Amino acid sequence: ALAVAEATGGSAAITTAGDVMFGLALDDPPPGWRLANREAAKGVSCALLAGEPVALVVEAGDAAWLKDVPFAGEGRLTVRITDRAMGEDGAELVLHPPVLALGVGCERGVDVGELGALARETLGRAGLAPGAVACVVSHELKSDEEAVHALARDLGVPARFFSGPELEAEAGRLANPSNTVFEAVGCHGVAEGAALAAAGNGGTLIVEKTLSRRATCAVARAPGCIPGDSVGRPRGRLAVVGIGPGGSAWRTPEASRALAGAAHVVGHGLYLDLIAEVITGKARHQTPLGEEEARAAKALELAAAGESVALVSSGDPGIFALATLVFELLERRDHGPWNRVAISVVPGVSAFQAAAARMGAPMGHDFCVISLSDLLTPWASIRRRLQAAAEGDFIVALYNPASKRRKARLAEARDILLKARAEDTPVVIARNLGREGEQTDIIRLGQLDPGHADMLSVILIGNSRTRVTERGTGRWVYTPRGYDVKIDDPI
Q1: What does each of the 491 residues of the chain score in pLDDT, given as a tens digit?
Q2: Which of 257, 249, 263, 290 is nearest to 438 (CA)?
Q3: Which of 31, 375, 401, 483 could form an S-S bond across to 453 if both were Cys, CB 3.0 to 4.6 Å?
Q4: In whole angstroms, what is the distance from residue 127 CA to residue 371 CA?
Q5: pTM value?
C-alpha cells in the first residue's frame, strides 16, 4: 500500500494497528518464512502495542525485517526465530526462516511416496521444521523426476537443480563422497552436494546423506535466508502455444496464461507481431518463414537451460504447425537436456475452424484436412489423399493452397475432387482470418482456380450434401448430418 501510494501520489489507508506502529505484521512474514503457530501472533502483537516487554530469540536466519519492532531482552511472551520443530507453547510465536536446503537423490522413476517419506523422516529425526526448508535441490539429471517435484509441492517450496560440475565444486565439503556416484553423474555426491550448493559458501551440512531403498536425502543450513527461487535452476518449461488466427478474440485463456508465464517467446515475426501487446517486456526470438526447425530447436535449447519458454504458432500448434516438429526433434536428436524439459501443447482455434464459423457450419459432417504444400510431403502422397477424400465424400479443408512456386497444385486438387462431386459444390475461401484485411467468399468448385488463394488462405470444399442457404440477410454454408431424416416433424 505504501509503495502504491508513493508511486501514485496518493495516501495509503492502513488500518491494522501493528502495520501502523511497526510497518509490518507478525503474521505476514517475508516470502519463504513460515509461521508454526499463527494463532499466537495476535497475543504477541497486542502485547507489543500495549508496550509490554516481548523477547526476541533468533536461533537461525536473519531477522533484519523485525528491526523496527521494540523487542526486549526478556518478557512474558517470546518471538522465536528457529529452524527447529517446536512443541505447542502459547507464550511463544514461532517463525521458521528459509535457511534449510533439502538435497535429494534418487533412482530413475522412484516412487513419490518413498522420497517424501524419507525426507519427512530425515527432518523429523534431526528435529528440524519442514517450514524452514527453502528449497528441494538435486542434480539436473533429476529435473524431470516427478517424485522430486511432488516433494517440493508438498513442502510448498521450489525444486531447483545444479549441473554436475556445480555439484562437484562441493566435493571437498562432502561427508560421504562416492566414486561410484562420480562415475555415474559427474560429481561425488548428489544429495549432500546439492544441499551445500544451495546453502552457499557459509552453509554447513547438518544432516549427512541418509538412504532409503531407492533415494537419498541430506540437509544443509545457511547462515542467512536462502533465496529458494534463485539458487540453481528450475526445470525448464516449453509451452507450444496456438494463438488462433491472430485476433485476441480467438485466443484462448489458456494460451494467454501460457504467454504471460513465459520469460522467452519464440516464433515467426508475423505471429509475434500479432501478440505484441501480450509479450511486451519478454525476450523475443524470431526466425524467418521457412526456418521452423531452427525455431523449435531454439525454444528447446532455452527451456533446457531452465527457462520458461513459449513457442508460438498460428492456429492450432498440432495442425500443420510446430508441435509435431518439437516432438520429432526430441525423437530424432535424443538430446538429454531437451528430454528433461516439461513440455505442454496449448491448443488454438485452427484456420479451418475459424473459416467454418465465419460462413456457417460447412464442417458439420465427416471431414479431413490436407496441406497442398509439397515441401515436406511428396506430391504423389498428397494426390492419393485427395483421391481418397474425394472417394470417401469427405468435406475437405485445404491448407497452404497456393504459393508463387506451385500455383498449379490447387487446380490439380480441384480436378481430382471434381471427379467425385458436382461442379456446383460449395467452396469457402477465407484469407487473413481474424486479422486486418480479412476476406471470405463462397464460390462453386468448378470456379476454383489458383488465383483465388495464397499461403494466407484456407479453402473449405463441401461434400455431396453441403449446401448454401440464404435466409434474411444471411448467406450461409452448412453440411447436414441427417437431422432432416431423423426429425419427422421439423419446425
Answers
A1: 888 999 999 988 876 656 666 677 888 899 999 999 999 988 998 899 888 999 999 999 988 999 989 999 888 999 999 999 987 777 899 999 999 999 999 999 999 999 999 999 999 999 999 999 999 999 999 999 999 999 999 999 999 999 999 999 999 999 999 999 999 999 999 999 999 999 999 999 999 999 999 999 999 999 999 999 999 999 999 999 999 987 888 999 999 999 999 999 999 998 999 999 999 999 999 988 889 999 999 999 999 999 999 999 999 999 999 999 999 999 999 999 999 999 999 999 999 999 999 999 999 999 999 999 998 899 999 999 999 999 999 999 999 998 777 778 999 999 999 999 999 999 999 998 888 888 999 999 999 998 888 878 899 999 999 999 999 888 999 999 876 665 555 54
A2: 249
A3: 401
A4: 64
A5: 0.86
Helices (H) and strands (E) in the chain, counts: 17, 22
For 4-36, the DSSP string reads: HHHHHT-------HHHHHHSS-TTSPPTT-EES
250 contact partners, CB below 8 Å, separation of at least 6: 244, 348, 349, 354, 434
- 183 φ, ψ to 5°? -65, -30
Give the three cell numbers for residue 470.
440464404
> Residue 112 has what DSSP assignment?
H
β-sheet with 367-371: strand ranges across: 367-371, 395-399, 457-461, 426-431, 439-444
Amino acid of residue 272: L
Which residue from 236, 222, 240 is spatially nearest to 319, judged by alpha carbons? Answer: 240
Angle 332-334-338 (CA atoms, 0-180°, nearest 5)? 115
- Of 219, 154, 214, residue with least CA distance to 193: 219
User: Which residues neighbour 357 within 8 Å (Cβ) at sequence distance 6 or greater?
Assistant: none
The residue among 321, 332, 335 whose CA lies nearest residue 369 is: 321
Show the beta-strand stretches assigned E in 318-391.
342-346, 360-361, 367-371
Q: What angle do CA 270, 261, 237 make, to 5 degrees?
A: 90
Determine phi and psi for 299, rounding to 5 degrees.
-65, -45
